[in-house]
């Protein structure tokens, strides 16, 4: 009996020890989601103009026309008071009293994203001096306006055409009290009654900000926001598009199994950043991912609705030719723990250059228009889907000054990730100073992404519909190879 009792006691103690040990064992916690840090690099810090001393003006061909047109335009999306469109950018001068200017979320206008707006805190007066040399007539000054609840709720607009000696009222006691919260109002001041405009060298607009009927007004902290300021009129000369650069990173993440879109986003990068850390939270699984960095005044063309990877494509319109597009895709990224994923973005474009070798004087060339003759180079990262409804009739228009600059034209051709060459071709129309066509011809070659292509030949000498240009290919973005075709 004693032996049996000892046996039971031993079994009980052994069971107790095992149970106690099992309670002290750490069981791994099953997590539903994980942090994935994507560290992106390999792209340029800023976009430099490719005009090589030329004025690349009105890429779409719509900004330089005779008759009524925008003479100056400010989107403020570049985070400065510099105009996007100007007759004389260097001659524009802002005077803000006191000088408290910041840039905040703005309002979309025409082809410009909402981007940023100019925000004036505790400001009582704003003056903008604008050159008007050779302007035939003025139409209106217009802009969008908003502000804080403690900001000014009345506005006077005056103008001076005698360099600030006298000012004339243009708009008095404009009531902004109905513009509240995030709402925007539209202000338009008529300038059609201004006489002898062609003799005016400069106009100064003065905006006087007042309390109005705002009982909450705070003269030190109240803010007024202005966006999409434009001055329109009649002018037959050249209007320079300044091209404020927007740096947008797009990401699209798809489930590798069912190919459905999991998440997407667009982030604005700082102007001079060379690297970006993007932390995202993803559930355990396998993912196909696309990152694309667009750096231009216009945004990329993307589908309006993306449900699966088969719906997804990228395109950069031809007239957005300064855009330096970088990107990378990841296939089947397995997420089952916290990850740090370094990515070096690749160029999704190639550089195309025309070097004209004419010995004759080219100073009479007034305009050169270039259009694409090849199949539209949209990029589909995750499928073989075709998008036949996509079209692009835009053109790049150069207004060269070959008498003063080297006879060279240059632009970026978007291709996406294209590791094998494809056919490309361009049609060129050459106009004289009287806007009459003096030559039309075509060129063609092959191209893949991250290359430099140079067409070298005579612009006007030896007219033919198919120009005999030498072709120079640089496949390593640094070494040149020349060949004939």
TrEMBL record:
<keyword id="KW-0732">Signal</keyword>
<feature type="signal peptide">
    <location>
        <begin position="1"/>
        <end position="22"/>
    </location>
</feature>
<protein>
    <submittedName>
        <fullName>Uncharacterized protein</fullName>
    </submittedName>
</protein>
């Amino acid at each position: 009996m004693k032996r049996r009792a000892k046996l039971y006691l031993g079994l009980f103690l052994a069971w107790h020890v095992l149970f106690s040990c099992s309670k002290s064992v750490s069981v791994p916690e099953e997590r539903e989601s994980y942090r994935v840090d994507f560290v992106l690099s390999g792209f340029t810090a800023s976009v430099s103009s490719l005009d090589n001393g030329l004025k690349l003006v009105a890429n779409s061909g719509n900004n330089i026309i005779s008759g009524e047109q925008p003479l100056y335009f400010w989107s403020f999306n570049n985070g400065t008071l510099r105009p996007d469109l100007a007759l004389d950018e260097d001659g524009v001068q802002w005077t803000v009293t006191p000088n408290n200017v910041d840039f905040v979320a703005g309002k979309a206008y025409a082809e410009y994203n909402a981007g940023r707006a100019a925000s004036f805190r505790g400001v009582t007066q704003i003056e903008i001096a604008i050159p008007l040399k050779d302007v035939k007539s003025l139409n209106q000054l217009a802009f969008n306006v908003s502000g804080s609840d403690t900001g000014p709720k009345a506005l006077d607009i005056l103008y001076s055409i005698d360099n600030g000696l006298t000012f004339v009222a243009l708009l008095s006691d404009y009531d902004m009290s109905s513009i509240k919260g995030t709402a925007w109002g539209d202000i338009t001041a008529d300038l059609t009654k201004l006489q002898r405009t062609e003799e005016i060298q400069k106009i100064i607009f003065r905006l006087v900000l007042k309390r109005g009927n705002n009982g909450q007004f705070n003269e030190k902290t109240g803010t007024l926001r202005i966006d999409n300021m434009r001055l329109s009129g009649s002018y037959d000369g050249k209007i320079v598009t300044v091209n404020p650069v927007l740096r947008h990173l797009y990401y699209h993440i798809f489930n590798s199994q069912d190919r459905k879109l999991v998440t997407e986003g667009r982030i604005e990068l700082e102007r001079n950043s060379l690297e970006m850390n993007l932390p995202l939270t993803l559930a355990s699984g396998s993912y196909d991912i696309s990152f694309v960095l667009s750096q231009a005044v216009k945004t990329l063309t993307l589908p309006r609705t993306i449900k699966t990877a088969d719906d997804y494509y990228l395109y950069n319109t031809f007239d957005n030719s300064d855009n330096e597009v970088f990107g990378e895709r990841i296939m089947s990224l397995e997420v089952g723990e916290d990850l740090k994923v370094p990515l070096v973005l690749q160029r999704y474009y190639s550089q195309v250059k025309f070097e004209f070798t004419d010995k004759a004087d080219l100073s009479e060339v007034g305009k050169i228009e270039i259009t694409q003759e090849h199949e539209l180079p949209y990029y589909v990262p995750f499928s073989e889907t075709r998008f036949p409804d996509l079209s692009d009739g835009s053109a790049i228009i150069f207004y060269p000054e070959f008498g003063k600059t080297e006879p060279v034209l240059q632009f970026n051709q978007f291709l996406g990730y294209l590791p094998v060459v494809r056919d490309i071709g361009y049609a060129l129309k050459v106009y004289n100073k009287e806007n009459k066509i003096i030559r039309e011809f075509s060129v063609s070659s092959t191209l893949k992404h991250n290359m430099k292509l140079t067409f070298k030949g005579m612009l006007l000498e030896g007219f033919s519909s198919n120009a005999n240009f030498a072709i120079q290919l640089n496949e390593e973005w640094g070494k040149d190879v020349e060949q004939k075709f």
